[in-house]
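tokens incoming
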């Protein structure tokens, strides 16, 4: 896992810990397998760091990367997606020079999945019962966003000849999301496409 000191990542979040906007950013960081310094702040008492990092809106969360502040949760998620590769260790597995280096990359990737599983467990609590998905008991947009990556990770594991990254014992929730998304996938050719595959949509 990429360390907080190595990346210079700090996350300013409301001290209450129940902000959906902060959770959104924490989920993205977990999916990236990135460690960060967690800095809870009191929204009612603007700290100097918050005022310096977000002088216009003075709102949380704020991600600080190498001294550079990024504000607004959706912008932060987009920044993470564009600037920091998802699960960087998993790609590195295919480019390792020896068995020890490959084993290290596998361990880093498994640690990243551990963070993802923890974030999913925290966000899947719906009402009194805890469900298997991000929103609790029903499949949602975030589950689909995660689930589409599962076959990719499985393919990397097979190409590298390493054990599966997801299994029922270590990552039950992430595995459940991936399985549910794959079972519900239905890619149909539109009637007017003449039998040709349609374009890729994002």
């Amino acid at each position: 896992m990429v360390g907080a000191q190595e990346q210079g990542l700090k996350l300013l979040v409301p001290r209450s810990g129940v902000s959906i906007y902060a959770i959104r950013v924490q989920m993205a960081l977990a999916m990236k397998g990135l460690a960060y310094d967690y800095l809870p702040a009191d929204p009612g008492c603007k700290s100097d760091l918050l005022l310096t990092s977000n002088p216009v809106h003075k709102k949380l969360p704020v991600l600080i990367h190498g001294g550079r502040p990024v504000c607004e949760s959706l912008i932060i998620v987009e920044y993470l997606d564009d600037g920091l590769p998802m699960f960087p260790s998993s790609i590195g597995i295919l480019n390792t020079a020896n068995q020890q280096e490959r084993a290290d990359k596998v361990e880093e990737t498994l640690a990243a999945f551990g963070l993802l599983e923890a974030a999913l467990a925290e966000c899947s609590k719906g009402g009194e019962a805890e469900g298997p998905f991000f929103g609790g008991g029903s499949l949602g947009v975030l589950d689909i966003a995660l689930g589409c990556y599962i076959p990719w990770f499985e393919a990397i594991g097979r190409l590298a000849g390493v054990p599966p990254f997801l299994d029922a014992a270590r990552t039950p929730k992430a595995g459940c999301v991936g399985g549910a998304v794959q079972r519900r996938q239905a890619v149909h050719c539109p009637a007017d496409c003449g039998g040709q595959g349609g374009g890729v949509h994002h």
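note: Residues 88-125 form one domain.
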